[in-house]
Amino acid sequence: MLLAFDIGGTKVACARVEGGVIRERRQYPMAYEPAGFAEVIDQLTAGWAAPSRVAVCTTGYIDGGRVHSVNLDIIRFWDGFALAEMLQARFACPVDLINDGQAAGWGEYVARRARGLAPANLLFMTLSTGVGGGLVLDHRLRRGPHGLAAHVGHAGVRLMALDGVTACGCGRSGCLEMIASGTALARQAGALFGRPVSSAELFALAATELRAERIIVHAAQAVAEAIAGFHMIVDLQEVVIGGSVGLASGMLERIRAALHDMPLRAAPLLSAACQGGDAGLTGVIALDNERQEK
Ligand SMILES: [Zn+2]
């Protein structure tokens, strides 16, 4: 039995998988210190048989069995946390770790391959609490030697956030994540309206409030600019947009319109993620299947 986890900034999802199929799925809020995290793992797997292997996708990048945070503002204890060691000690079986954007990107690629539509070069971008991604080149998922591949939220863009904030949690400035993540949309809306506004509320406001629409269009332009830059480096056939902000009403169309206004050669197809909130788990399960077949 495979035990699959998707560990995000706010929640941990867990699935009991047999024969590549999810038999049971559970979810719990993420903890913000190691002891609490160990309890979350125990709660999620209570009553289940011992797994033969564990596969995890998680926020942060994976280097040498440890997770590292690019954005240090998200979960403090996560940076340098020995996740593989902790899970191996807990479950006494092999543990595989991968970044959540990379896993979700592979999940989206595999879903297209199953329909006979797999592009050789696909970039997945998730616009959510943060901005992450997964890159498939020549039909192969790229993790990178340090696990950093496709951390697209920390690509620099020329545009500046509308509230003037430039410093990113990664230590650099001018990152896409500071303009187009859900956190960034809420921050810019809060500064403009002088009260807390969630990114979901901002999308609802945009129907009647031009200033709300402007924040969203600006974010879409920043995403389009980043896509144009990636495209010129790796020659993309398809860009898949996911995440709560990416799949919010009209966001894909706004990104498409911004791309259309650019003089882009051989523009890639722009599509919506089709795997929903479980794209990470889907990718992790597909990668496990491939390891089993080898
Ligand atoms: Zn950054």
UniProtKB/TrEMBL annotation:
Transmembrane segments: none annotated. Pfam families: ROK. SUPFAM superfamilies: Actin-like ATPase domain. InterPro entries: ATPase_NBD, ROK, ROK_cs. It comes from Duganella qianjiadongensis. This is ROK family protein. It comes from the Bacteria.
